[in-house]
């Protein structure tokens, strides 16, 4: 089954290499994102969605972000 990201890129007429270059990432990294092998943070998801002229929520499933705690005696 093809991912929505791959289908969207292909519909936009972009090769994997061209899209990766526009995003300033390697084609292998973009392929991992398209295949679901690698997640992305909100800024990168927004960048990809903007490249394809779509909203981030149209291409990516929202995820929860948890606060990070300091490790040695810091306040939470």
TrEMBL record:
Molecular function as annotated in GO: DNA binding
PROSITE patterns: HTH_CROC1
Domain HTH cro/C1-type: 5-59
Gene3D superfamilies: lambda repressor-like DNA-binding domains (1.10.260.40)
InterPro entries: Cro/C1-type_HTH, Lambda_DNA-bd_dom_sf
Source taxon at top rank: Bacteria
Name by which UniProt lists this protein: Helix-turn-helix domain-containing protein
Organism of this sequence: Paenibacillus antri
